[in-house]
Amino acid sequence: MHWDRFLDLTSMGHLPSPLSENCVDMIARLCCEEKDRIGSKLGATEIKNHPWFKDIDFENLRNTRAEFIPQVKHAEDTSNFDVGDLNCQDLLKDATLKSGHNFNPAFYDFTFRHFFDYEGGGQPTGRQTQQRPSI
């Protein structure tokens, strides 16, 4: 990412409400060089001790009820995600041009394999296959 070129924490006038100083400091300490990043020296303890998290009870966090529990209708339900002005056609065109391959989001991170590929034919042959020796 090019946070150093694009992240400007000084001009937040476009936001509906101003960010707190602790919030801005946390963002700045996360979006910085790795050697300076919060947590790089003391790990999670350093992050938990930041003033932004002062009201968080980390010891009992798993026992508390979430403030927002999304309603999910099915495994592929994306209604809880804001797509904004997302233009899928432009994304497809850009991805296809950059990669030189067709890009279809329905097959993102999809790996093809023959589940019944006995002897490379793609269909079970009914013959016994050779067992590979154990390592």
From TrEMBL:
The keyword Nucleotide-binding applies. The keyword Cytoplasm does not apply. Keywords: ATP-binding, Kinase, Nucleotide-binding, Serine/threonine-protein kinase, Transferase. InterPro entries: AGC-kinase_C, Kinase-like_dom_sf, Rho-assoc_Ser/Thr_Kinase. Its EC number is 2.7.11.1. Residues 54-122 form the AGC-kinase C-terminal domain. GO terms for molecular function: ATP binding; protein serine/threonine kinase activity. Coiled coil: none annotated. Gene3D superfamilies: Phosphorylase Kinase, domain 1, Transferase(Phosphotransferase) domain 1. This is non-specific serine/threonine protein kinase. It comes from Panagrolaimus davidi.
